[in-house]
Amino acid sequence: MRRNKPGAFLIGIPFAAMLAASTTSWGAPTLVSGPSPFASCTVGGPGTVYVNAEVEPWMAVNPANPSNLIGAWQQDRWSNGGAHGLVAGFSFDGGQTWKQTNLPFSVCAGGLGYERASDPWVSIGPDGTAYSVSISFNQSNNNNAVAAAVSRDGGQSWGNLSVLIADNEPTLQFFNDKESVTANPIKAGVAYAVWDRLELPNGNPYANLHTAAFRGPSMFSKTVDGGLTWSSPSVIVSVPSRQQTIGNQIVVNSQDGTLYDFFDLISPPFKKSAGKVAFTKSTDDGATWTKPQIIAGLETVPVTDPNTGEAVRTGDIIPEPAIDPATGQLYVVWQDSRFNGGQYDEIAFSTSTNGGASWTAPMRVNTPSGRPAFNPSVRVNSAGTVAVTYYDFRDLAADNKSTLPTNYWQTTSTNGGGSFGSELRLSGPFDLKTAPVAEGFFLGDYSGLDTRGNAFLSFFVQTNPGNTSNRTDVFFVAP
């Protein structure tokens, strides 16, 4: 995502000792990423590029072969937006071993002629066809696009490269942002891409793509032939001036085919609760959509190091949805400060059992620690158990200003989200201050979480503390 600092809206205890004192932990996660394939690429400046730094991972399980997992991430993050390119990781043994290949969305990757790529996403249909999408853009001008590619061999190779939308010079008014793709779980060859398209009223938006004079509707494109062709983009959430959506993501009801697009609806006045967790739905496979329906206010505040005030960039304005494929029950999680009087973000959760007609009041699902929690993901397994994963700073000592110990957690609910417990430490603590700095210490706006039967599979980034030549890596764990 190429946007301004979160909150603008317009868009020492030894680590080993802390680990021993924590709740249930698991063995070391499996390393997924390796040395950067783009290390020699000189395209994309100006800015600081963190070679070998991976951020913002996403992952999907192949329903046609559950031992096949495919993930994607930003490779070589830039300080001022995007990365040298996107990389896909793939496994054919359930995540025990991984290989990687380039996704064809940037010059460095030998694909599209754009200097940078961002917002990796992957989804896999019932026939094993994998769909990946990207925001591809230039730093030297306002050229930008949403693109898609397809893999039919488990992520080993990617073809059918398609540009879903492009806004290139001399058109300077639009920027496409924060796309995702969802394969229909019951219709082979069908997948849906959504994103927001920022529109400025002037002709020179280089300096700031999220200013006070703008609008940003939700866009939609669909393939029905396995990614060979995509429909012309259409607006599915229309907004007036000074409103936008962001974080659009579709889930599909396997029982009746209803599509639900979840997003953050941002509107003035631009202060606390300017964002709303919202959704729209379609009962005719994307031909028509309802008006946006509000679930709750999104009362996020900027995440910082509690001891130093240093900025931490997170997915603070990005809600994450899930659906139970057996029952159609809907779930959504997001960052919210309502549980502590607006002091810091924690993880809010809401659910609907009636197709979104009503939602439960926001509930905190992270363990309260007096420290921020951020970047939640949510999924439902085949037994109906709900898992939420997130990072937090609970192991930060009050006098520690030299490091920022960070953990990655999973908490579960066996009663449809009525209560959460059985907290597991999936990884950490690691020092977040080794992460790339991109408007704050940055691991990404989201992390990957999927299911295989009753198992939850996590795909996330952590730092390599003190290693400034390889600041972060992608890891996999299946507790």
Automatic annotation (TrEMBL):
**Signal peptide region:** 1-27
Q: Could you tell me one molecular function GO term of this UniProt entry?
A: hydrolase activity
What keyword terms does UniProt attach to this protein?
Hydrolase, Signal
Q: What is this protein called?
A: Glycoside hydrolase
Native organism: Paraburkholderia madseniana
